Amino acid sequence: MLLANRNNNLFDTFFNDDWFTNPWFDGRKASEAYHQMMRTDVQEDEKGYQLEMELPGYTKDEISATLEDGYMTITAEKKDESEDHKDKNYIRKERYYGKCQRTFYVGTEVEENDIHAGFQHGILTIQIPKKEPKPQVEQQRYIQIEG
Predict the structure, then answer these.
(1) Of 56, 65, 114, 125, which residue is least crowded by CB atoms under 10 Å?
(2) CA dihedral 17, 89, 97, 95 (to 10 degrees)
(3) CATH code for 3-129?
(4) pLDDT grade, residue 93 (50/70/90)?
């Protein structure tokens, strides 16, 4: 089963207060802007799952995917490496620089070689096959008795 982890926690409602409205996000609360990033469509068929994730403005080199303990994490990071902005007086700066990530549970049977990903025109597409859990074989273990 494929489940999304959206960082829902006790503090989400706390930061939705108008006090935390951020002018950099067009007057929206920072938490609302965060949830607009990395919007993902998940499709399922008999063979597996396909994820299509919006990552506009990112390059392939700014995106990474890792798999650990059955969880696949997609990270996108854009760094502001330009030096020419320091002497400029911005009235408004809307471009996003920073890091965002999403985590999906794909199961412990799936290995990194099973997952295929491609990035084109700001859309990250990931294919994840369905894998049947391996049945655990009960092994009888013998204890040596000395004497």
Answers:
(1) 56
(2) 80
(3) 2.60.40.790
(4) confident
Residue 73's identity, in one-letter code, is: T
pLDDT band at 134 (very low <50, low <70, confident <90, very high): confident
Instruction: Give the residue extent of every domain in the chain.
Output: 3-129
SS (H, E, C) the chain: CCEEECCCCCCCCHHHCHHHECHHHCCCEHHHHHHHCCCEEEEECCCEEEEEEECCCCCHHHEEEEEECCEEEEEEEECCCCCHHHHCCCCCCCCCCEEEEEEEECCCCCCHHHCEEEEECCEEEEEEECCCCCCCCCCCCCCCCCC
The confidence score (pLDDT) of residue 68 equals 95
- The answer, as to whether pTM is greater than 0.85, is no
